[in-house]
Amino acid sequence: MTAAVRTFDEIRLLAGRSLRHIPRIPEKAFGAVILPLVFVLMFSYVFGSAISIPGGDYHAYLVAGIFAQSMVGTVPGIAVGVASDIRSGLMDRLRTLPIWSGSVIAGRTIAELAELAGGMSSSRCAACSSAGRRTAPCSRPPARSASCWCRPSRSRGRECSSA
Amino acid sequence: MRILTTLLAPSEGRALVAGHDVVAEPRAVREQVSLAGQQASLDERLTGRENLILLGRLQRLSKRDAIARTSELLERFGIAHAADRQVGTYSGGMRRRLDLAACLVVHRPVVFLDEPTTGLDPASRADMWSAIEGLVEGGAALLLTTQYLEEADRLADQIVVLSGGETVAAGTPSELKARVGDRRVHLSLPDAEALQSAARVFERLEPELDLRAHRLSVPAPQGPQDLRAALDALEDAGVAVEEAALSRPTLDDAFFALAGEQSDRPVLEEAAR
Q1: Do A99 and B41 touch (CB under 8 A)?
Q2: B245-257 pLDDT, tens per residue?
Q3: Exposed end of chain B (fewer CB within 10 Å): N or C?
Q4: Phi, psi (5° rounding) for residue B66?
Q5: Could you give the domains of chain B?
Q6: Share above pLDDT 70 across residues of chain B, in percent, rounded to a whole number
Q7: C-alpha distance from A88 to closest chain B C-alpha (Å)
Q8: Whole-angstrom Cα distance, residue A155 to residue B113?
Q9: Which ipTM score applies to this complex?
């Protein structure tokens, strides 16, 4: 086995470990999946009609903002996870194993990304349906540019950096 | 210990573990050692079985081997019944046993244990001790730290006593005990007056007196013969005795004698082979 394959294996195993945490720490999954969903629904249905942005689309602005907020919000999650590994002594054990030391953080990051992707796709559905209620179906360019992060194939090369 | 397991870089000096330098070849050292820390260093959200399988797979066991080895270890350490519960729900003794099992998933020639029985009840401690003895019989070199001298006495072949960061003494348990002296006779007397008379009887033997508890002890190199002689001598002098006992020095005596006054927080380190 080459070193690269071995490292890939280590990352896969440690990502698997962090993925197992997701159903076992429901409060964390709540923060990643339910919270952005609630934000999207609340700010579009409850406050949406009261707010208007001069020369822009409030809905596109809102969804992009919530996506960005959710993504930044996973960073402290990773940091807290790593810190608790250090405090519990697990990190010491992993560091005395003959593995690439970065694989611990890489594995955790991959698991967090998977959780985030779950949260983002449910929020995206909510964003599309609320956009559909307010205006035309999800085909309006601003709304689409906000939600294309999760489906680049259908955005046909449209600017995705808003997410 | 953290230096020897490559977790910390030494500020000076050089250390070799199983022939590899901890600074120059950390990876080679990590191939040789396993560590059980002071806390049970396991993933609390995984089950006992998942923890061991993960560690086995990270050390390049095949999936099938890791599963088989895990079942064997869980059985051996008496945690098979809780194998599929999250480690967060385990008792202290079960965690420590699982932690020790985690050291053994893949055989390593050098094992480091950092206070493996601190905070355990006596039954769990006895279990840990027999597990550790089994590990040494399996051919691993073991370095363990402990604050319990009884534990060092039972498990270690070589003991290094540390106090205030300095080596106070080193040797086998019997060497350390021999330094403190031989067996002693301990006598309890009813009152201070009897204690003074007894002290006069044993003047030549330089008795140790405890004035508050009315106790006295004298060296007894001959063991039971000296005990009988001491009781006879007191009877001849007409001194009543409440209790009499013969004891051999424990490592605790050795430690107090060696570390003396300077010990604020004693740490004992031992290496068994």
Answers
A1: no
A2: 888 777 777 677 6
A3: C
A4: -60, -40
A5: 32-146 (3.40.50.300), 182-248 (3.30.70.100)
A6: 90
A7: 6
A8: 57
A9: 0.73
